[in-house]
Predict the 3D structure of the following.
Amino acid sequence: MTAFGTLLRQRLRRDRLQLALWLVGTALLAYSSVAAVADTYGSESERSEILQLATASRTILVFRGTPNGPELGAFLFFQIFAWLALMGGLMSTFLVTRHTRAEEEQGRAELIAATPAGRVAPTVATLVLGVLANLALGALVALAFIVGGLEAAGSWVAGAAIAASGIAFVAIGLLAAQLFRTSRGANGAGVAAVVGAYLLRGIGDASGTPSSDLLHVTPAWPSLLSPIGWGQATGAYVENDVAPLMLALGFTAVLVGVVFWLQSVRDQGASLLPGRNGRAAAGPALSNSFGLAWRLNVSTLIAWAVGGAVAGLTASSLSELVAQLGGEAPEIADTLQAALGGGATLEQAFIATFFGIIGVLAACSAVQVGIRARQEEAHGTAEQVLATAVPRTRWLLEYWFVGVIVIVVVLAAAWLAGLAGAATSDGADELVPLISQAALAQLPVSLVFLGLVLLAFVWMPRLTIVLGWVLVGGAAILGTFGPLLGAPDWLTDLSPFTHSPVPTGDDVDWAGGFWMLAIGLVAAALAVASMRRRELTTAG
Amino acid sequence: MTTVISAAGLQKRFGRTVALDGLDLDVQSGEVHGFLGPNGAGKSTTIRILLGLARTSGGTAALFGENPWKHAAELHRRVAYVPGDVSLWPNLTGGEAIDLLARLRGGTGDRAGYAARKQRLLEVFDFDPRKKGRAYSKGNRQKVALIAAFATPAELYILDEPTSGLDPLMEQVFNREIARVAGEGATVLLSSHILSEVEELCDRVSIIRAGKTVESGTLAELRHLTRTEIAFAADGLDPAALAAEIDRIPDAHDLVIDHGRASFTVDSDRVASVLPELTRLEVRALTVSPPSLEELFLRHYGDELTERVAEPVEGARA
């Protein structure tokens, strides 16, 4: 067995669950979107109307892609390709960092590099694993489309497009691992590259040239700088042109060359961008355990708040457009409203749906605070804090408090951005109370998840991370897609997200909110009280 | 003299694994107490219980006469702790971590005093506080916890293998700091598997094995349990006659005559009774070697060691 083979098998074995989840999850998303699209926009005329609407609005293209005719396959490719490519990109950059910079940072890479395997074989093995994972992803997505009833040739081109853009992100991830000193830095750069590629394509698509019937859009040049844009340029199901994918593979080849050159000139453990020094003494903010909890969560807070602000701005700026549509094309408005569900008017439904997503964001940010507490414990740093004059219960209570602040800031960011977006609109008077109610309505559900993750932390510490994400993810999927996929009421009612109050502008039924507020507070109180009897549970 | 740490019949189970199986530990105020045992003997588990971070499955533990599980936070004001494997916050600098831990311990009330103590320790430990936590080596992470501990006045220092990762020069610095706090009247519990360290620093030691205390006492008390080696030049003496002579000495064992030297061992408290016999034999180049802690240790773990060495190594052919 060569060193390369051993290293590749070790990587496959280490990632078997994680990769399986990424692959199956993305394939399921692909499959369910075929089903949803076929269900919601069954006829070609409906799809044409939606495409024309999207082309006219432009903003929708940022989140979708370029329309390429109303055929079911092409329509689906327009709807979902960029999202699937985004998933593939994140899978790829995380995968690469996990096996390169993270290993180097932990010192494990040194152990391997000191064997005959050397410094290059681990990088090659990571590259090959990344390529294999993306080929599998492409194949699974293609199969999901075919099983969903789309024609085979186009589905394989779509799958190839996803694989090719993912492989380009493998190369970007490898480059980030060379540049940054820490896995945090490399992961951050990787995510920034994937999201940046997504947005670059979004901007290019939105500023593209529409055809006269508004059913096709030729993207502007920024899309052609993005690996996701290259994949989209295949025009799957219509042109089926794989030539743009050569661009992705060429880009990968060049980047891989650069990566191996960089690796050959740097020391093991070193990086091209050196780590910076920090303060020699702690500032006044770091004078108690709350200060520490805050410091450990503030960077995630900022990230979630930016997400909340983007979503809030999108909600209010799109809702104006949707309101216009209600006047111009009532039948499309009805279809949309049926798809969104809830709300007396299309505008209300739209705001409610978007802020529902913001509620999921806020709940996720709360879950991450609970997970941070567990990471502190597993990492061993909580032990040092709890060996000082900080009581266990107070320590956990402070994490709850930080969680509440994080939720409030994320929702406030969404609310303020929403108001800013609404300020320019004609119907601002109606939008302001609607947006305010919608933002406030997400507070209870977020507090429920904060309480639940802390309970998981106290009662099942080793499962905190898995339980936290599974609960919030499962509830979000059940709450948002449950009604769309025709799940029974009792099932969708299990998701706390379905109980968030729905903004209407005047009379709002807040009962669900009060119930969830009570549940969230009780869960948190129970968690803090149980902490009294809870031992430190270290990793392992 | 008051009892600072007392543990009796301490038990701790993790599922089916028994980590502590009736451990006893007594530490009096003002003493530097060595807590000896191989890896996995239960040293860190005991310390976790004493710090109220883990609960006992049986037996009692008291710190300053109080239950550490129930009064953890109040007791911790009087305790400085250095873990065996120090983890740092990746995005905090070493200096920030030191200040944070000292402040959390409540030991920075006297600002100028704390600043001076910290500055002195940063210098003697030769530590750069400006790097981020993730950039430090194991030894440097250890220094963060040591500086934070020694920069705050405490009545009790609990140190879990504190010198693992320190170089010999830094070990000397560490030893001086221990001597300093002990001189100021603090109590120290020093867990270790490095015998020379314990021999140099500790007044009393407890030796544990597989979750039980097997020996406890002052070094002098424990030394009587081991054998002193007596050796002298054997040339000019008839081996057979010599053997017969030595055999007459009570408690003399393991006679070896090799390379012109004769050596035997005798229980340490019987050395004086052997001397007249040696005088009678008019031995030359006499050496009397007192037992080291190494031997003490080997005496308790030697059989385990022999078993391990004797085990066939599986897969050796592969």
